[in-house]
Design a protein that fits this description.
The complex is a heterodimer of chains A (142) and B (169). With 142 residues, chain A is α/β, with parallel strands linked by helices. Chain A is built from 5 helices and 7 strands. Chain B contains 6 helices and 5 strands. The longest helix of chain B has 22 residues. At the A-B interface, helix 1 of A face helix 3, helix 4 and helix 6 of B. Chain B: One of its GO terms (molecular function) is hexosyltransferase activity.
Chain lengths: 142, 169
């Protein structure tokens, strides 16, 4: 079972790596954002904010290529917008998708996480008080 | 004493530069390092020439500075917070605030409050109390002993639940 892990550099990336350590899988492929002294991923996207919709959508073909090329059973993202884009590409290509909202969002799900609710197979929060019918709490990294 | 300040990579954070300046002025013999962020210029950089300042240290260099530091002062970014908690590094937080134009929203303030509540780590919303807290830091002090054990426990539980979920998806 191959899992494609996606996160932008920084806190999202640190959480993604910790999360990947917890998941039992045969193969893990990583996607991150470029230009940030980050050489641990196999594929890269340009960083953008979820408010910069056009910069994001312009990269959809690249996101689709990454998903097709790595051919994962499941795509997991901890954020932010570039993770949402790859998750969406996975939805288009009928892959299973899991959004784990950053532990930094303790009062409200991130905007990207709220968008992910529209198409992801499952959205997780790391705060029990943010659990709803659509958003589950299964634990946290801290 | 060695103190590592980090501002993250989002908008400019002049208040962190003021804190670096104030500590450098009070303790000229301390070794201060400031990772100011790629967009730091003008008043987002310290005026005092003492501290070692760079927009962004390469990962290996940052890790070495992190390990050498007696105290880390962070903008309450989750990458820094996780590294400090996991490695038992004493730290303080001054979150970026949306009202000051330092971030798009106040999630770093929420983060700082949550980490303070869960792990007893101090955070400051203003420069002055932060500077006082840095100056008052006792290098012999250690974070509560059970932090790493608690993190290990949380993750073990989370991992079991995650693997179960993935089987069911």
């Amino acid at each position: 079972m191959r899992i494609l892990y996606v996160a932008s550099f920084g806190g999202h990336w640190v959480q993604l790596q910790r999360l990947a350590e917890l998941v039992e899988t045969d193969e893990a492929v990583f996607v991150s954002t470029s230009g940030s002294h980050n050489d641990a991923a196999s594929h890269y996207l340009d960083d953008f904010s979820v408010r910069e919709l056009w910069t994001g959508l312009r990269q959809l073909p690249r996101a689709l290529r990454i998903v097709r090329h790595s051919d994962p059973y499941l795509i997991v993202s901890t954020g932010a917008a570039p993770g949402l884009l790859v998750l969406f590409a996975g939805f288009v290509l009928r892959r299973k998708t899991l959004w784990v909202d950053s532990i930094a969002n303790s009062r409200r799900l991130s905007l990207s996480g709220r968008v992910a609710k529209l198409f992801a197979n499952q959205v997780l929060t790391q705060w029990p008080e943010l659990e709803t019918r659509r958003v589950r709490y299964l634990g946290r990294l801290l | 004493m060695k103190v590592l300040f980090t501002a993250g990579t989002q908008f400019a954070f002049p208040r962190m530069a003021r804190a670096v300046d104030a500590v450098a002025g009070e303790r000229p013999d301390w070794e201060l390092v400031y990772q100011a962020g790629p967009r730091a210029q003008g008043d987002a950089l310290p005026r005092n020439a003492g501290p070692l300042v760079q927009p962004f240290f390469p990962a290996a260099e940052f890790q070495a500075l992190f390990e050498a530091a007696d105290l880390v002062v962070t903008h309450a970014g989750m990458g820094n917070i996780m590294a400090c908690l996991e490695q038992g590094k004493p730290f303080l937080m001054m979150p970026r605030l949306a009202t000051r134009g330092e971030h798009r929203n106040d999630h770093q303030r929420d983060t700082a409050e949550a980490v303070a509540r869960m792990y007893g780590i101090a955070y400051c919303l203003e420069v002055e109390p932060l500077v006082k807290a840095v100056l008052a830091h006792d290098p012999a002090s250690h974070p509560p002993y059970d932090v790493m054990e608690r993190i290990r426990h949380e993750r073990q539980h989370f991992g079991q639940q995650l693997n179960r979920l993935i089987q069911q998806l």
